[in-house]
Amino acid sequence: MLAKSRSNIYTFITLFMVIVIDALGAGLIYPILAPIFNMPTGGLLPQGMSVEMRNVLFGITMAAYPFFMFFGSPLLGDLSDHLGRKKVLLICLYGECVGMLFGALAITIHSVTLLIVCRAVTGLLAGSQSIAQASIIDISSKKRKTANISLITLAISFGFILGPLLSGIMADKTLVSWFHYNTPFFAAAFLAFLNATLLIFTFRETFHPKEARKIKLTKGVSVFISAFKRADIRKLAVIYMFSQGAFALFVQFSALYLVQNFAYTITRISHFYIWLASIVALSSLLLIRVAVYFWRLKQFIFYAMLIGVCGAAICLLPASKYVWIGLLPIVIGGVISANGILTLFSDAVDPEEQGWAMGVASASGAFSWAVGAMFAGLLSTLSYFVPFGVVGLLFLLGAVGVIYVA
User: Fold this and answer.
1) Which residue of 19, 97, 268, 372 has the smallest Cβ count within 10 Å?
2) Is 110 exposed, middle or buried (0-12, 13-18, 19+ CB in 10 A)?
3) pLDDT, greater one: 341 or 134
């Protein structure tokens, strides 16, 4: 029993580090995207292009990742239930390495099309988070499940703190002459390759499938559709999409808002995302445990959604400082509600379906992030305050949905 316990601890640490490095690679890219679409020195788009067209192309590029993740996550999550977690994790990580190299090339040759391809490839293979969730659930007791799921979010946020920090440095030519906007993409590709290579030697399989099945390209869609045939999963998926849709719209629109209205540089955008990721980490490490201690699961999900509504209202005030202030309740509400809903997903299925359930949850979130990205680009052409209003509305709809689920 003691040996098994130690083995689980080593496996958990390995998974934690896999997620940190993976998130660090993703965090390297995030602060780059809004500036390169809007800064004259970005070089990606012609200087004479209208702001409206820049916003639309920004939205499409941002949406490509979660759109393809929507199709890929259920497929990869379900495959991990049949092929094992380790094999699918390796496919994801090496695939992300190739996708990031496409991104570096896109910046080098000034190709929006290739940058969208980069986002599509990395999104299609971005199943490592849901598979890691399934792996951690494999070795978690029922009592520790919610806390361990929150540690996944902590690992992601830790990576996102380091990522933007390094991104602000690696894109700064004044520090090193050969640094450029493509440097973070090369760094992310290297990290994905390193991540996969370390995984080969350090990860011990947590789930041994009873049988192997052939890969079907339509599996992602069919898994997602099958989820909506179950009333309990369907309700959870809808609530999760409201929660993630609100969070996604804020995260993806706020950078665009700060760049276009307050001339934020990549360095300042990096600081903004570091602040965001720090609040995510705090919520995952401390606040989720307080919430679990004082309230029932569905209660704290409901309260978290209402906190998000308050944050959206603060962002409507016309100054950049209010976006930084409003970020606090929005992130707290989004993180706590997401962790709670993921636990409900897990509790609703059998142990053999954990990979499927996490894949469905990830696909629901990916759909929300894709829609949020498109709205970030399109709604900003109407008014810079409309997206913040939609963030509040989505949180409110999620809160109402929790009442019906209860």
Assistant:
1) 268
2) middle
3) 341
